Amino acid sequence: MSKLLLLTLLLVLAMLLGPLLINNPGYIKLIVAGYSVEMTLLGLVIALGLLLLAGALLFAILRHLARWQKWSFSFFRLRRQRKARAAFALGLQAYARQQWQQASEQLQLALQDPSFSTEKRMLASYASFYAGKTEQAGTLAHTLESSESNSAFVQADLLLQQGQAGEACRILAQHLLQAKQDPALGQLYLQALQQAGQWQRLLETVPQAISERWFSKDSWQQRRFAIYPAAISQLSLQGFSEQADYWQNLPAKERKSAAAILGQAWALAQQGLNEQAEQKLVQALTLQDLPAAWPYLRQIPLGRSVLKLRKAVQHWLRDHPTNGYLYAVLAYLAEQEGDKEQATLAWQKVRQYQPELWQHA
Description:
Layout: H1 2-23, E1 28-32, E2 35-39, H2 41-73, H3 75-96, H4 100-110, H5 117-130, H6 134-142, H7 149-161, H8 165-173, H9 183-196, H10 199-211, H11 217-236, H12 245-248, H13 252-255, H14 258-270, H15 274-284, H16 290-297, H17 307-319, H18 324-337, H19 340-353, H20 355-359
Antiparallel strand pairs: 1-2
């Protein structure tokens, strides 16, 4: 509609101004460097129009030539990019097949194409590491963008896999402010602290992990059992105190959790207070906690103070007679008492109802 209106206005102006310009063409005289040019106003307008048209045509020709020249000079670059993309596909296939040597080579060739460079370097770093090229893997990890968390994550992860947990902690601690946006960084930091045996620092970091939500609600329920039992039992050897700042700064819900009480029971058993340790276990453990608690429960030296816990397990068995974890606990309690025959019978039940648990016994 607007175009039609504009065209109508132009036609009206042409009808009004056309006769006026024909009857009164005007007169223009230009004198430049001794040369004079005389023409009518209409002639000047037409000349300017032709000049603009010629300039636009020349500009289009030059732009076309520039594009052709750019394409001709970039032929080899485009060829390298095509090869790099093909190498990326081959590298991903080799990585999925765990053919680390081939994956390392192809992924490094893929870096000639700038797209997805961060992802390519991360994959190439891991592939090189698994191919036995530790130094090359570290170099690729260092070349990642230092301002991002990816570089710190890959470097720390590779160090953890080499058993250098302390160095991994140092690198991750420098980038911990980014953990709120990248929770995987915080998760790896907690893992590094555990491997390094920095138990106090681990408990000091837990409030930050909770407030910044490094874990989902469900995964944190499981993660507690990987943190508190080992941390408290190890700190008890150095004089663990519930009045210490690193413990009091934890939310009350954490201090009262089954995982924390399991750790306290472990610490009491290490001090020879077996009856108190058993009492805490009976009060804290639930049937739902057993799968997560089992790897740590079986390490607690209860000795012969197992009667109350056995009664609790037998009570659960009435309603859940095919639960393999309950039979595993009975086997553990029998071993604590030195009753090998009962332990063997219980393990047979475990094998029947929970084969995977029996295989890792």
